[in-house]
């Protein structure tokens, strides 16, 4: 079952996000705090805040936020981004992530979102039609990168975006000290340094 998050389950969803992201990209993680802060951001799509249940178990979540692309002529194009998206550790790699995101993308289209940009793993997101932004010559803080991905929900919306620049909405950049303080209210978990992490 996929439905909108209820206020009463916010904490449970933050626990899910924390467990799912823990030690994946850095020792510990920040994403549960990002989600906590994002819910009260003006650019947050309340109607695109989804949770996924299998029987009575909360196994997934995804949220969306407004974003923009700065075009070469100085004008801006409205787009959206999404994340955190998390699947419960016991249910990863069973296609629930794909099912949840495919559902959410349809809803995003119904909400009038015309294109999405996000930093992510091509191996997963390409399954749902995401492509590398560098193939459209869309830049990330002025540079060409492999991890910036896009998907048009309205065909052709990102045409004429040559050298457009994407910057992650500020809401994603939480204060790490604040995130650490917030984390203290959760059950203790060991932070580990792993070679696979991208933030050292
Ligand atoms: C990333 C995530 C949402 C994917 O959801 P999932 O249910 O585990 O993935 P799915 O089973 O739907 O994956 C479908 C396909 O995408 C690809 N894929 C998924 N996760 C992948 C990963 N971590 N690395 C490489 N390919 C991946 C695989 O091809 C997979 O098919 P396969 O398992 O048959 O090889 C989930 O693993 C998760 O919560 N990870 C931790 C948090 C996170 O990284 N969130 C995304 C941040 S951008």
TrEMBL record:
Keywords: Transferase. Residues 1-154 form the N-acetyltransferase domain. SUPFAM superfamilies: Acyl-CoA N-acyltransferases (Nat) (SSF55729). InterPro entries: Acyl_CoA_acyltransferase, GNAT_dom. Coiled coil: none annotated. GO terms for molecular function: acyltransferase activity, transferring groups other than amino-acyl groups. This is GNAT family N-acetyltransferase. The lineage of its organism: Bacteria, Pseudomonadati, Spirochaetota, Spirochaetia, Spirochaetales.
């Amino acid at each position: 079952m996929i439905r909108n998050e209820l206020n009463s389950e916010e904490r449970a969803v933050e626990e899910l996000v924390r467990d799912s992201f823990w030690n994946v990209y850095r020792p510990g993680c920040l994403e549960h705090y990002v989600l906590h802060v994002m819910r009260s951001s003006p650019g947050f799509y309340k109607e695109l805040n989804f949770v996924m249940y299998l029987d009575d178990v909360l196994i997934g979540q995804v949220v969306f936020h407004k974003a923009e692309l700065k075009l070469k002529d100085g004008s801006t194009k409205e787009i959206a981004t999404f994340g955190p998206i998390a699947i419960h550790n016991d249910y990863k790699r069973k296609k629930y992530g794909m099912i949840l995101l495919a559902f959410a993308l349809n809803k995003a289209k119904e909400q009038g979102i015309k294109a999405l940009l996000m930093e992510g793993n091509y191996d997963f997101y390409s399954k749902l039609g995401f492509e590398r932004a560098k193939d459209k010559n869309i830049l990330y803080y002025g540079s060409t990168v492999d991890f910036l991905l896009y998907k048009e929900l309205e065909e052709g919306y990102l045409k004429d975006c040559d050298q457009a620049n994407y910057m992650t909405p500020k809401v994603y950049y939480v204060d790490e000290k604040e995130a650490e303080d917030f984390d203290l209210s959760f059950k203790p978990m060991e932070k580990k340094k792993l070679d696979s992490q991208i933030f050292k």
